[in-house]
Amino acid sequence: MQEPISVTALNQYIKGMFERERLLSRVLVRSEISNYKVYPSGHHYFSLKDAESSIRCVMFRREAMSLRFRPENGMKVVVSGRVSVFPRDGAYQLYCATMVPDGVGELAFAFEQLKNRLHKEGLFDPAHKKPIPAHPRTIALVTSPAGAAVRDMIRILGVRYPMARVLVVPVRVQGEEAPEEIANGLDLVNALDMADLIITGRGGGSMEDLWAFNDEGVARAIFRSRIPVISAVGHEPDVTIADFVADLRASTPSNAAELAVPDQADLRDRLAHFQARMDRSVDRRLQVRRDALRRLGSSPFLQSPQRAIQEKRLLLDYQQQRLLHAMDRQIGEHRQQMGRLAASLDALSPFKVLSRGYSITQKDDGTVVSELSQVEKGDTLRVRVSDGTITCTAEGKEKTKWRKRS
Amino acid sequence: MAEKKLTFEQAMGRLEEIVAQLEAGDHSLDNSLSLYEEGAKLMKQCATMLDKAEQKVMKLRTDANGELTEAPFALKE
């Protein structure tokens, strides 16, 4: 006899059983939605049902955020997820990971299947995304050579960035052979290194029309491309496997051309901007020099050399005056001294004595007679007085007897 | 600087360098002026590249011998 167990224990046991079951850990279910409710928490609750059965489903906020459409009651969808037990209610339910509208039946089914598989394999991993070159030199368009898509791309590439060469790699983008041709085209561009950027895609169409870009072979060819790939399939809402694998997803072929190259209008703006910055910085450098030069130029000498010369001339005049003045003074002094000397010379002159009654007696030869012995009787003597000369003849000589002073 | 034919991208890259160097202002005036000259030359070169660029569109095809060749691509309207 077994011991009774609690409901919790029972439900936990059952939950464990569900979770050990591999088939239940990953199911794909196609069905119709009913009782769809979005809770304030952001989790979505609903049931999937068909004629005979229904199952409770929950899609948590995180997964529900990536829904590309708004699920409605009665809508046919393909849901992926796992089945497990909610112990509180003792009910099993489907925990949804993804949900897509079941518009095209098998295709959507396959799409989800492939998408999940490649996702798991890491083909969509952002770490594998290669950067798009800023200025591609050759862009390979792996697409149909006919139709609006290729024309739009070439036109937009030409308007925006005509420097890039465009190489059309013609492939079929629709029909049974399309996937293989697209994959081969991608491989060929890589093998021959014919471009530095690839755009692959096609214009809009039905999901069947776009189907080649949901092909696994195409997805893997995009993934192994060394050259960055931009996917450009259909219109804005169309999403293909190629979009997930590509290094960059464009919403349309025209959008791909815009994403692939810079716009020459922007490039010209940038050039103008460079020019302005270059001019500004060199102008600034020159301005500093110019200011220095202006400062130098404002010195009075450079400003008016005449005036400076004038000033020097005035200074010269002034010095000259001083010099002349000094000379005059000195000459005056000398003159005075000379006057004094002349006066004393005059005072000492023997002729000066003559006016006081003295005279000078000279012989014929001019010698001055100062002693008797110089004269003989009969000599002619010349006696100089103050105003002339008397010529005489010596009559006799008599020696003077000087009395001694008492 | 050698008169080498730069690609547009290289020329733009060099221009960016020159502008940054000029703005840093740690070159002599002579150096700055020769940088400026080089920049002006590149500027003209880039503008000319943009003005003269004519989009080349080729198409990959297989010729009679089964060899891959490129031929001018004509849009069929």
Features:
heterodimer; A: 406 residues; alpha/beta; OB fold (Dihydrolipoamide Acetyltransferase, E2P); Rossmann fold; 4 domains; five-stranded mixed β-barrel; five-stranded parallel sheet; 13 helices; 43% helix; B: 77 residues; alpha+beta; two-stranded antiparallel ribbon
Structural summary, described in words:
- The complex is a heterodimer of chains A (406) and B (77).
- By secondary structure, chain A is α/β, with parallel strands linked by helices.
- In chain A, 43% of the residues lie in helices and 21% in strands.
- Chain A contains 13 helices and 13 strands.
- Chain A has helices spanning 7-20, 22-25, 61-64, 106-121, 148-160, 178-191, 216-224, 241-245, 253-260, 264-297, 300-303, 305-348, 350-354; strands at residues 27-38, 44-49, 54-59, 76-86, 91-101, 138-143, 165-170, 197-202, 229-233, 248-250, 360-362, 380-385, 388-393.
- The mean pLDDT of chain A is 89.
- Chain B has a two-stranded antiparallel sheet.
- The model of chain B has no long low-confidence stretch (mean pLDDT 83).
- The interface between A and B is large, with 38 and 37 residues.
- β7 (165-170) of chain A pairs parallel with β1 of chain B.
Task: Give a topology summary.
The complex is a heterodimer of chains A (406) and B (77).
Chain A: H1 7-20, H2 22-25, E1 27-38, E2 44-49, E3 54-59, H3 61-64, E4 76-86, E5 91-101, H4 106-121, E6 138-143, H5 148-160, E7 165-170, H6 178-191, E8 197-202, H7 216-224, E9 229-233, H8 241-245, E10 248-250, H9 253-260, H10 264-297, H11 300-303, H12 305-348, H13 350-354, E11 360-362, E12 380-385, E13 388-393
Parallel strand pairs in A: 3-5, 6-7, 6-8, 8-9, 9-10
Antiparallel strand pairs in A: 1-2, 1-4, 2-3, 4-5, 11-12, 12-13
Chain B: H1 8-24, H2 29-52, E1 57-62, E2 68-72
Antiparallel strand pairs in B: 1-2
Helix pairs in contact in B: 1-2
